[in-house]
Amino acid sequence: MKLLNCPINGPRPVSEFAYGGEVRAMPHPPTCTDEQWSDYVFNRNGAPGVKKEWWYHLASGVWFIAERDTSADHVLRTYLWGEG
Amino acid sequence: MVSLMTSRLPPVLGEWIDRTQPRAFCFEGKHYSGYEGDVISSALWAAGEHVLGRSFKYHRPRGILSLANHDVNTLMEDRFHVNLRADVTALREGMEVTAVNTYGSGGVQGDRARFVDKLSGLLPVGFYYKAFHRPRRFAQQWEQFFRYMTGLGRPKFDLPRIITGKRYDFVDVVVIGAGPSGLAAGIEAASCGASVIIVDENTRAGGSLGYARGGSDASYDRLQQLLAQAAHLPNLQIRGGTFAAGWYTDHWIALVDDQRMTKLRARATIVASGAFEQPAVFRNNDLPGVMFASAAQRLIYRYSVKPMTQAVVLTANREGYDAAADLHRHGIGVSVIVDLRDQGENAIPESLRDVRVLKGSCVLEATARGNHLGGVRVAAFANGAPNFDHSESFACDGLLVSCGAAPAANLLYQAGCKMRYACEVEQFIPDVLTPGLFAAGRVNGRHDLEDRLLDGKRAGREAARYLGLSQAEPLSGTLSWRNPTHPYPVVPHPSGKNFVDFDEDLQLKDFHNAAKEGFDNIELLKRYSTVGMGPSQGKHSNMNAVRILARIRNEPIDQVGTTTARPMYHPVPLSHLAGRGFHPMRQTPLHTRHQRAAAVWMQAGNWWRPEYYAVGRKSKLECVRAEAHAVRTSVGLIDVGTLGKMDLYGPDAGEFLERVYTGRFANLKIGMTRYCAMIDESGVIIDDGVVGRLGEQHFYFTTTTTGSANVYRELVRWNVQWGLDIGIVNVTGAMGAVNLAGPKSREVLAQLTQLDLSAQAFPYLGLRQANVEGVPCRLIRVGFVGELGYEIHAPAEQIGVVWDALMRAGAAHGIQSFGVEAQRLLRLEKGHVIIGQDTDGLTTPIEAGMGWAVKMDKNFFVGQRSLRIVEKRASKQVAMGFTLPKTFSGEAPKECHLVIHAGNIAGRVTSIAYSEALGQHVGLGFIVPDLAAEGTAFQIRGEGGVMIDAQIAKPPFYDPAGDRQKL
Fold first, then answer.
1. d(Cα B909, Cα A59) in Å, to the nearest integer?
2. Do B933 and B952 meet the contact criterion of CB atoms below 8 Å apart?
3. pLDDT value at residue B3
4. What is the 8-class DSSP label of residue B114?
């Protein structure tokens, strides 16, 4: 089982975490087109590569960002939102 | 009668058996005796029993081959266990075992299915595929025949359930294998300060140091020195009888012993797992009496059993001569040493100087005497080809095979290490290791004892350096490439029966035929021929299969490659994997009170909730209706402590709620509550509840029972991004809650609190903080079930006091505790939707008819942008209420039954129940907009296709003006 490095709690088994999807920038709702908004809501890019992902430490309620190379399932680094 | 022990040696230094502790046991109905410390196979061999099993396909007699669980010649079963591996199963007093895969009363000696061996010509490689291919009309008879004839062991259906808990452990360095390199590695790592666990599948540490002695006890003395060193290191643990079943990411290792699985987290792994001795392939190489040199040495030094009386040794390395010296030392005659190599061995042990050595020769075939080896025919051998024209015969009852080894590299493959074929040692060795992984000893291509000790020490120090525990220089030194392995110990024979895979009875010709039929890629060959797919998973067969295929394709072994080694290393009992089963369920603080009141339980999310309370012999329906009746006519009490409950503080609290819920909350007055609905970014409704305001900067709100954890999680995530000045506390578990409902609820509650309960002082949707029976509570006037009612929230540890007081105070009014089922009925009469039942994963609040709860004129809320798109489109379906005629009798429709209109699906039922208060069935659902007008008649297709008339009716069905809840 993998270890994931929570920025607050340190390395913990991955079973203590929940995956929260890829980090995606929300388009500005009042000005974006319907197509842009739909793309944001529904479309995901599954191509392997380095992704920014949301992860949540279940036991302590910490959300953080993990940069993960999905082609190698290797986590490059983790940090709190805004600290990247 | 107990058989006489015929082959037990006088006491041997270091033997594992305890001669003061005899163990009586039974094999195939005959009585035997062995000793504590024996395995089943050693005790039987000592008693002169050499046919210990029958082979899978041809039912050929089989005896000891590896004595190390690298083959399954000796599969047995007893009353409780199927497929015991007799080579490694400890002998216990009173054991009653039989060989698996035998037919008829002859048992393992006279297996009635042995005729199959004579039919082997009719059983070509890929036989099953071909048999079932055509003609198809035979397939059924074939299947019955195969089901009878194949498979190993019989499942036992009457066993007690054994709960096998798992254990968790943590260590700096785990060493796989307690042979010389593993011990040296562990001692070095522990000396550098690392905590170390060495595991070994054998019950005792030492590996080959214990048994590969070469005619003296020097290696045994070395082992004692190492064990003494290890014993002085308190941070070093050696666990015998434990194998590493699999290596998983970040050094998470499944350790398996006969009791349980231990999940071990290490920081570094040293693989010192050694090598599997490999068979030579020649005709009748499976006769009982033909065994690996290491098996014979184990018999001698662990169990003090004579492997044979007169031996021939087939070898291609120094180890074979050492084993011959071990035989000689214990009074076993060695007729001849057959060396596959042209050059033979340089330094022949002194004790063997009179033994004849035939260089550049092979065993052409073994010959049988009854069910046992009777002799061998030896011929010259060059480049994989024997000289059939001239051979010499030798009588013997034992043949030692020592032609080489294959690395036990399973964990290295699992860890993603890159391997390469090293021609110096004719084996695969690790080429690129992954971080934190180290290899030492035979698995690393080092076969000389001194080299293995040094290689182990080197790996131990590297692991300590990797963990930052040692500043010492890496060990250097030149290691030799002493090679024990012959590149092609395979002897063809026109009559076959030269086995490559003993599990699956695969002969040399099967590989040639498979390749001819086009299956000449290693992965295809494996699947077609089933090589390596038997219970020993290729430990003794994969390497020869690769060599044979390389020769067929005339390619180097590196190019042929290997198959993928996956966990588990040995089979693991399913009970070990299943563990004890762990599905914790939550209980509210009132759980025991419900139990005493005969609650019938249901699961709601991960909570237990009372579905209803059983009364005497009344049916569920009668109980539910009585509970609902009490609420409508007098007063009822329900535990709603499973609701998600959140406290929200801070100057931005109002703004936060505006963003996460569809409604308006910034303007909510202190002391008031409002319904709240939550949608996701796509506009789908995902949760609802009630928001109340306790102070300018303090809100208290509820979520659905199943939604609390996810809602809390998502709210926290949103604010991580928004950075509003708020704090959210999830008090779901800290607070209990009950709902007191019914026309008499005010009278009941008034007995317990000083709070002014008049409609003016505490109106509908009001929120107050007051003591109830001395307990500080939050009270909300709610109307979920459509009657005057109070939701009372109190600290979890005190909610029981409130419950008891309400039940006492309500006794005069016949207060009735009610369950989830009655609540569902009551809310349905009011037309209140349940998120997830009356909505699904695509329902927007617009479709659900909840537009009143959505304030589109707000600046922003989650999902608002999607609703702007949705509201521009015509809805394909809308929420509806409906009734069945009062005259309806028969089986009512159920949830998910479809509305059918003009032959098409035009909607569906999401909730339905018979309302006693209204005297008819009422329901909720979805319907196409064309049919949604009040009063429209439509049809629902019920159970068995019966069409049932229904009519659109506008909820609430009961008390449409809501007068009763606003009293």
1. 39
2. yes
3. 44
4. G
Is residue B461 within 8 A of residue B268, CB to CB? The reply is no
Query: Taking a contact as any Cβ pair under 8 Å apart, which residues of chain A between 45 and 84 contact chain B?
Result: 54, 56, 61, 63, 73, 80-82
Contacts of A40 in chain B (CB under 8 A): 681
What's the angle, vertex CA B907, arms to CA B905 and CA B909, rounded to 5? 125
Nearest CA to B434 out of B234, B248, B670 is that of: B248
- Of B158-172, B187-201, B451-465, B512-526, the poorest mean pLDDT is in B158-172
DSSP B809-835: HTGGGT-EE--HHHHHHHHHHTT---T
The tokens 């000793």 sit on which residue? B35
Q: How many CB atoms lie within 10 A of CB B565?
A: 18
φ/ψ (deg, to 5) at B941? -85, 110
Cis peptide before B856 (omega within 30 of 0): no
- Identify from A15, A34, A73, A80 which residue to disrupt to test chain B contact, counting B C-beta atoms within 10 A and taking the largest count: A34
CA-CA-CA-CA torsion sign (B955, B960, B964, B967): positive
Rounded average pLDDT over B403-407: 96
In DSSP notation, B194-222 reads: --EEEE-SSSSS-THHHH--TTSSHHHHH
Total beta-carbon pairs less than 8 A apart between chain A and chain B:
41
Amino acid symbol at B338: V
Is the distance from CB of B301 to CB of B42 less than 8 angstroms?
no
**Residue B139: its pLDDT value, please?**
67
User: Sheet containing B96-99: which strands, arranged edge to edge?
Assistant: B30-36, B18-27, B96-99, B75-77, B84-85
Nearest CA distance, A41 vs chain B (angstrom): 6
C-alpha to C-alpha distance for B468 and B869, rounded to whole angstroms: 58
The token duo for B964 is 């009763």
Tell me which residue of A30, A54, A73 sits closest to B858, measured CA to CA.
Answer: A30
The identity of residue B478, as a single letter, is T
Rounded-to-integer distance, Cα B420 and Cα B557, Å:
9
Residue appearing with tokens 């929420």: B879
Any bridge partners for residue B780, and if so which? B767, B791
**Rounded to the nearest 5°, which phi and psi values hold at B964?**
-70, -35
- The token duo for B664 is 């308006």
CB contact under 8 A, B716 and A42: no
Q: Does residue B264 sit in helix, strand or coil?
A: strand
Crossing angle for the helix pair B508-516 and B522-529, nearest 10 degrees? 120
Residues 262-281 of B with CB under 8 A from A: 263, 265
Mean pLDDT of the region B898-910: 96
pTM of the full structure:
0.87
Note if the bond before B135 is cis, omega within 30 degrees: yes
**Residues in A touching B866 (Cβ below 8 Å):** 37, 41
Instruction: Work out the mean pLDDT of chain B and round it to a whole number.
Output: 94
Please state, in angstroms and rounded to a whole number, the distance separating the CA atoms of residues B492 and B485.
19
- B706 within 8 A of B646, measured Cβ to Cβ: no
**Is residue B119 classed as helix, strand or coil in its secondary structure?**
helix
- Helix/strand/coil percent split, chain A, to 5: 15, 45, 45
pLDDT for position B862? 97
Q: What is the largest CA-CA distance in chain A?
A: 44
B429-449 tens-digit pLDDT: 999 999 999 999 999 999 999
- Cβ partners under 8 Å of residue B133, min gap 6: none
User: Which residues of B fall within a CB distance of 8 Å from A72?
Assistant: none
Which residues have C-beta within 8 Å of that of residue B298, sequence separation ≥ 6? B67, B68, B211
Give the whole-angstrom CA distance, residue B722 versus residue B453.
60
Percentage of chain B surpassing pLDDT 90?
87
For the segment B459-487, what is each residue's pLDDT rounded down to a tens digit?
A: 999 999 999 999 989 998 889 999 999 99
d(CA B182, CA B188) in angstroms, rounded, equals 10
